[in-house]
Amino acid sequence: MLKKSIIQKKWPPVYDAEYIPEENEKYWYKDIETASQEELDELVFYKLKNVMNYALENSPFYQRKWKREGFHPDDIKTLKEFDQVPVTTKEEVREDIEQHPPFGSNVCIPRSEVRRIHGTSGTTGKPTVFSFGKEDWDRIAHQHARIMWSFGMRPSDLVFIASPLSLYIGSWGALIGAERLGAQTFPFGAGQAGQTEKAVGWLKEVKPTVFYGTPSYALYLAEKAKELGVDPKEFGFRILFFSGEPGAGVPSTKKKIEETFGGICIDSGTMAEVTPWMSNTECEHRQGVHLWQDVVYTEVVDQNTHKLLPYNSEGVPVYTPLERTSQPMIRYWSGDLTTWTDDPCPCGRVYPRLPRGIYGRIDDMVTVRGVNVYASLLENVLRRIDGLGEEFVMVVTRENIMDEVTIQCETLGTRSNKELEETVLNELKRETGVTFKIELLPHGTLERTQFKAKRVIDKRNFRE
Ligand SMILES: [Zn+2]
Hints:
It is built from eleven helices and 21 strands. It is of the alpha/beta class. It has two domains: 1-361, ANL, N-terminal domain (Rossmann fold, 3-Layer(aba) Sandwich), CATH 3.40.50.12780; 366-458, ANL, C-terminal domain (GMP Synthetase, Chain A, domain 3, 2-Layer Sandwich). The strands form six sheets. The chain has a five-stranded parallel β-sheet, with helices on both faces. Strands 10, 11, 12, 13 and 15 form a five-stranded antiparallel β-sheet that branches. Strands 20-19-18-21 form a four-stranded mixed β-sheet. Strand 6 (239-242), helix 9 (251-261) and strand 7 form a beta-alpha-beta unit. The longest helix has 22 residues, at 37-58. The protein binds zinc ion.
């Protein structure tokens, strides 16, 4: 039994809006974060039961879905049985929105209580929009603040928000979390032409201590700064935290970011649909993202059976936010690939980890001649090689029946092209077993992004 006062037997939970730990406290809620596994499981299961019952009572989407699938929340008697709950997919949500525009039939609060509308970035198809009620919005801010605390953010920090302040929930989630924590914020929201040059100027003057954005944008910013004669270390960031791309969990990218800026690089993020999206975030020790199980319950499951896998296996993360009342999501299928572990972390938190973060996707990973090639693996290899720029693209083509993958990357001109090409070819072959075509381009040729980098261009036509 959880004896501690902080664990509420109340759902949805109500948190003290004024509470902030003392500056030198290591944990926001020590009682929960360092609970025993049994205590944590009990809290998680209590919340899961409440979320499921709530969805059954309030969500026409889940009422229909579960009836169709012959499932009832009462079937689940223990946490171990939770993996019998059917998963919810992006396609189901998209279909529901099409049939019940504009928000779908999973919004469980009256329209008048909706505080914010956000959505996916819509990189594939029409954006999916979400409604957040006021109470959910406040709880998201609270949980994000709590998680930011774990990587060392404090009220004395000033946070530079570099991702666009748009429909994209990432930037807003970072903003409200930082505000709830009592930090100062500088919501810059890059994305317009010429804005990165301005950012360099402002950063030098305003001196924020924390950066938030995507890893590819941070590296682009560093490149711009150097062009303008500014060493990115001069900005003085002590923490850089990231979401929107897997890069911050890729060891060589993490190293590059830390060496370039001089601050610590923190990987974070799940999916917009299961906000509070910071529930997967590294602590200051940077041993892979912790799964904050009492915020969003994360399972790593078999991609075919959807059953929970033991620690140290590879599978697909499935997410269940535990405090959302405006739009519950129960076992939301991510399609990502990861490996998880419960090896202890020096921070002492009970939460398991993804030591290598999210490193691929089951549905857009490129399979080349039978080998699964992840852009993040290539990134790890390419960023280690001297003489290459930051950007790269893999272009997949099919000639006759053979797949060809051309890696386009940029040379900095510090080594001969022939030697560099051989190094790239050999390193990639050694790491993946695949022989790629290498195409070296002059520095600055590939498209720069102020947001998420596109690493795979698949030109194969599977419908022929
Ligand atoms: Zn830790």
